[in-house]
Amino acid sequence: MAHIDLGVDENEFPGVRGPLKYRPVTGKPMLELAETLLRGPLSLPTADRELIAAYVSGLNECTYCCSAHSAFAAALLDEGMTLVDQVRADLDSAPVSAKLRALLHIAGAVQRSGREVTPELVEAARAEGVTDEEIHDTVLIAAAFCMVNRYVDGLGTFAPSDPKYYDETARRIISVGYRNTV
Amino acid sequence: MDEAEFPGIRGPLRFRPETGQPLLELVEVLLRGPHPLTPGERELIAAYVSGRNECTYCCSAHSAYAAAQLDEGMTLVDQVRADPDNAPISAKLRALLHIAGAVQVSGREVTPELVATARAEGATDLEIHDTVLIAAAFCMFNRYVDGLGTQPAADPGWYAQASEHIVNTGYRRVV
């Protein structure tokens, strides 16, 4: 049971979906932001963006968001959940490109504090060919999930334990996107 | 762009308008939309969380915006930031600030006890919801501003000037 009455069946609308339905006036710009950041026409592949979201949500120990965005990333990656698990377990030895690894290091710094993003981390990413836009988008995806993770857990929402829920949600998000998710 | 002219979050909002627009819409609704908590009280929550995240730009800005909309002005903002337990605010606002402080650490720090205390002081579900989301949103904005290494305003008077614009016309057209 969430800390407040969200006015929905939490089994049907778990995680962030309850609060988004409870308060559409804030839910709408949040979904618009998610759609643009994770699925909009940016240079980073959508799979990489979902992986950043899953990685940060794991660091924040947000079960719902980490399960959901891990499933979304896995559905978009050739290597599937194996790669998501490797990145989450040990970023430095996971088989990802040097560029994506450098961006995930920036995302991990943002998760602790914006002040942890050092010029060295940015330089390392730039040396791997990362653009200003990609640095910007990585910082904002990581920061946005520091919001969403706190929103989901701060209201004490329910996280399904059945992986099937997240796989089904992944199929829907990939076909119709975030805007109509609630 | 000239970062002196567009300090803090204003640079990134201009750099990427497609994300800037929903971010500004969110902050407008959260801090200035119709709500039982006054804009001054909501700006105070934003300033308090930004101070705990040590985000100089956001804390200076939202402290100024709170001060401009609270009868007790910057004196009260400074008291809340220094010691919320002894600041002269209502028991309800104090309980909401405790929830915001927990959210700043982690969503998992918001205990049923913190929520029950706020409820006992008359906080509604809507006020608890918006307090959690304001605190969470500033955990995003603070990281966005500092994660990109933006500069705060060079002149401390800039924030008081900015507050006039925010109070009169809101956030949507800030960039």
Descriptive overview:
The complex is a heterodimer of chains A (182) and B (175). In chain A, 66% of the residues lie in helices and 0% in strands. Chain A has 182 residues and is mainly alpha-helical. In chain A, α4 crosses α9 and α6 (98-112) crosses α8 (132-154). Chain A is globular, with a radius of gyration of 16 Å. By secondary structure, chain B is mostly helical. Helices cover 69% and strands 0% of the residues of chain B. Chain B has 9 helices and no strands. In chain B, α3 packs parallel to α6 (91-105) and α6 packs antiparallel against α7. The mean pLDDT of chain B is 97. Chains A and B meet through α2, α6 and α8 of A and α2, α6 and α8 of B.
Which helices and strands, and how do they pair?
The complex is a heterodimer of chains A (182) and B (175).
Chain A: H1 17-22, H2 24-39, H3 46-59, H4 63-76, H5 80-89, H6 98-112, H7 119-127, H8 132-154, H9 163-176
Chain B: H1 10-15, H2 17-32, H3 39-52, H4 56-69, H5 73-82, H6 91-105, H7 112-120, H8 125-147, H9 157-169
Helix pairs in contact in B: 3-4, 3-6, 3-8, 4-5, 4-9, 6-7, 6-8
